[in-house]
Design brief:
Order of helices and strands: HEEEEEHEEEHE
Radius of gyration: 25 Å
Number of domains: 1
Number of strands: 9
Largest sheet: 4 strands, antiparallel
Helix content: 25-40%
Shape: elongated
Length: about 260
């Protein structure tokens, strides 16, 4: 008597299809993770190359006045503590590292992202973002000094005042720093460079040694918002995240070529 296998064939087909679906879901989930990891590595590498470029250009500036610290109440000083760690010369983190009498005691790392208190572009309490190009630089040939891209309101000087003058540059276009473009776009991601200069060490009137703090940051995911207020709201809500790479380099007077 011939046995009918049609029922078993249908069951086998259902099982095989289910296995394929499960494997496919796992594969696409794995592939998505790999893509996101590679994208994160690429963005970190791009930001690191940019922060190196900005730091090198600042170090190579032959005119010492180009990288002098701020004057007045927001002048910044740093020094090494007994453990050899670089810290701000003040008893308070707000304002940070102000040149007052004291010893190095203020930690310069502000959070887990690596942003320093001298270059943090986000002041969370007041939801103020220091610089955002409003989607004018991405994919364009405009540079920092063009009003459509970086100048004319793209740098929030008010936010920097809220930051108690933590960030020295960029400022409004028209300064000696215009040769260093702080807004750059690569592969649909916009990167922003901010930097600040502090005297070294604490409790000294010497002006021949300085530390340059440079941070390059980007917003993840890349915002599609034209208005900075919407971006600030989403950063505060956690929809957008500021990611960054920071670097601290030396500048000594008399070593310029």
């Amino acid at each position: 008597m011939k046995r009918d296998n049609k029922g078993f064939t249908l069951i086998e087909l259902i099982i095989a299809t289910t296995i394929i679906l499960i494997v496919s879901l796992g594969f696409f989930g794995w592939a998505s993770t790999i893509i996101q990891t590679n994208l994160s590595i690429e963005r970190n590498n791009t930001a690191y190359e940019m922060v190196l470029d900005v730091a090198e250009k600042l170090q190579r500036m032959y005119d010492n006045t180009l990288i002098q610290k701020r004057t007045g109440s927001t002048s910044k000083c740093v020094g090494y503590d007994g453990s050899g760690d670089l810290k701000g010369c003040n008893t308070s983190t707000s304002p940070p590292a102000i040149c007052t009498s004291g010893t190095p005691q203020v930690p310069l790392s502000s959070d887990s992202t690596g942003l320093t208190i001298l270059t943090n572009p986000w002041y969370g309490t007041d939801s103020a973002l220091y610089i955002y190009d409003q989607n004018k630089c991405n994919g364009s040939t405009n540079t920092w000094v063009d009003s459509d891209c970086g100048d004319s309101g793209k740098v929030d000087i008010t936010a920097n005042a809220t930051l108690t003058g933590r960030i020295d540059h960029p400022n409004a276009a028209g300064s000696a720093y215009d040769s260093i473009n702080p807004i750059r776009s690569y592969r649909n991601t916009t990167y922003y460079a901010v930097w600040s200069v502090a005297y070294l060490p604490c409790n000294t009137s010497s002006t021949d040694r300085r530390k340059i703090f440079v941070t390059v940051y980007w917003i993840d995911p890349e915002p599609a918002d034209a208005g900075i207020a919407d971006v600030q709201t989403k950063i505060a809500a956690g929809t957008y995240t500021i990611k960054s790479v920071s670097l601290i380099v030396d500048k000594a007077i008399g070593t310029e070529s």
